# Entry
Amino acid sequence: SAVISQKPSRDICQRGTSLTIQCQVDSQVTMMFWYRQQPGQSLTLIATANQGSEATYESGFVIDKFPISRPNLTFSTLTVSNMSPEDSSIYLCSVEGKDTQETQYFGPGTRLLVL
Amino acid sequence: GQNIDQPTEMTATEGAIVQINCTYQTSGFNGLFWYQQHAGEAPTFLSYNVLDGLEEKGRFSSFLSRSKGYSYLLLKELQMKDSASYLCAITGGGNKLTFGTGTQLKVEL
# Structure
């Protein structure tokens, strides 16, 4: 599977500010995804990051709050905008597997605390 | 819509066998995943079932019945390091995964 890194690994932010999370993969992948895992909860898909076009957002998530960039096949960013304490969560990127495209492999996650 | 049910938590003894069940209801179904997630870490892939039946991979096996909307993850010869959350996820196509709430497994001596 691909090696996936995320920056920052964790951050503490003030409400009203924005944070951009980076996801880097060591090989080209077609599909990249962004998930949120709130404390004690399972993973919820935020959006699919599409290379060369706008991200595809899931119900309940909007571009103004979670803008996503995908400039190439190895990199994506997720911005959490105008943060509130409810945005405190782990944010994970994932990529498709090389052997089975349906399988997703996850980055180490970014732990965000909003005060 | 989609609905996935798993037990919230389970406890088992080191060396024993434990079965973690997952039931699902969905309008479109391609396959079912099991992921393991240790506290503070990212989920790691365990198995992917598309066809009915049992797939074995070392100490871990996963079973799927598409007609019953049912899967289980079987862990044999439990070790303390198996204490983790086990996440069931389904895909209906388009690479979109929908996760269950996870089963927190505690392995005791």
